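Task: encode each sequence below as structure tokens.

Item 1
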Amino acid sequence: MGHPAPIPQPPGTSTAAPRLRDRLTIPVLASGGILMAVMQTVVVPLLPDLPRLTHASAATVSWMVTATLLAGAVLTPVLGRAGDMYGKRRVLTAALGLMTVGSVMCALSSDIGVLIAARALQGAAASVVPLSISILRDELPPERRGSAVALMSSTVGIGAALGLPLAALVIQYADWHTMFWLTSALGALGVAATWWAVRESPVREPGRFDVLGTLGLAAGLVCLLLGVSQGGQWGWGSPRILGLFLAAVAVLALWWWQQLRAERPLVDLRLVTRPRVGLSHVAALLTGFAFYANSLVTAQLVQAPKATGYGLGLSIVATGLCLLPGGVTMLLFSPLSARISAARGPRITLALGAAVIACGYAVRIADSRDLWMIILGATVVATGTTLAYSALPTLILRAVPAAQTASANGVNVLMRTIGQAVSSAAVAAVLVHHSSPVGGVPVPTLHGYLLAFGMAGAIALVACAAALSIPGDGPTGDARRAGGATRGARDEAMEGA
């Protein structure tokens, strides 16, 4: 049987556009991750002024951060699973679209209820990174995959470092709504670029969507994270907080039972409980805790009044610029992380990253009075975070079937989010407990900051130990079979085209 003759290319057509789209896939996905992180941080400089601007209480305004946290935690694993089932590019574009709609709502309104709802919509963007990583696995050859995944993981820190000074500059020189108009334009550009430059992955896991599992996970996570985020304000021993934690335990226990019996579960718990996957999730939680304390404490420390004896009294803009070197470092060190993972395995990269984070906090404990030492310590922590965050998705990709990469990475990002929420609550509790009045206002003492650094450094060392306990890095049988399935699906799609 003869080979089919090649179909002649229609006059006037060119392969230049597809080739350009292929070259732009990584930059477009990375810009989406950076934009997501910028969206999450731009509201932070506004928080002190929002009660006056919106005629709402400070407690109500704080929900502009809490709503994004809760929505992101709930939607990340849900949208990851939807991406595995219905198409990763389709769900990624929808997540960026919701983020953009939320930004437009913030630009158009000063009503606190509308703003909180808009920020909840923006929480959908938390799924951008796991969905993008899954697309990179499906579309890139192995020799390019490691560096691309490392860059994608680093976008969280890069965007966070860029968002704070950007927002502070806009707020200082323009109306605060201008900031959201700017992010709306960037979001719309991101949606269009993603739809044009990113191919739809042929790798799918068809089946019926687990609505009951989704509702159960949402209820359990809302109770858990609401209790963690509001414990300091409502009182850790208050009936509301205790009730939320008890409800979280009960609901999540029932959810676990339901997931083990579901034919197509939202989260494959049998996969999660494998040591290579489960310990990677534990390391993600601990690393998220250790990383987040750096941003929280550094921002407060350098803005503390000089009357404290240690504070530098810097403005919000100057504070953002102090964190900027860390973002640049994350961009520069992501290729190094990929090379270490290729040579030694992502388990070693993760352990090294956690150890570097601990070293960064040791620098912070040694000297937190001089600005250059503060920037140095924060940058060292950011460097370790780059190594750790870049290694985590590679560990997941090597341990799970290709058809479950988006949902598995979504769970991993969820664990980071929980770690960050717990870190925020723990750091706040330490600083509140170690405060003294300055000008009639309670301000954290230097001892309180040093305790927070020590706590975060100790958690980083525990993360290092968890990373070293992960079984060997070689691809599992499931991952190898999944790789074959991915290549087969891509070949079929190309033949059909």
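Item 2
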Amino acid sequence: MTRPGKKRARAASGAPGGSRHDEPGEGGVDEAVAFIAEQVGALRKLAERHKLDVLHYLLGMTKLEADEHLRLRSKRKLS
């Protein structure tokens, strides 16, 4: 946890003027969102199994948002 008024130091990306979208070792925004959607889906099932209703709901909304992001990105790429 950080203290108010203090900023957390960021690790160097190794790339000059590194982009937050293409960090080394990552496949870009679309792959990141796909990975998040997959992991959130598994976490949502776990929350449901343990009757954690609010977490189940919030993770479901997160999954919908990730899926929508991917759908819109693929739609833009086709045009």
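Check on item 2: The chain is about 60% helix and 0% strand. The longest helix spans residues 53-78.
End of task.
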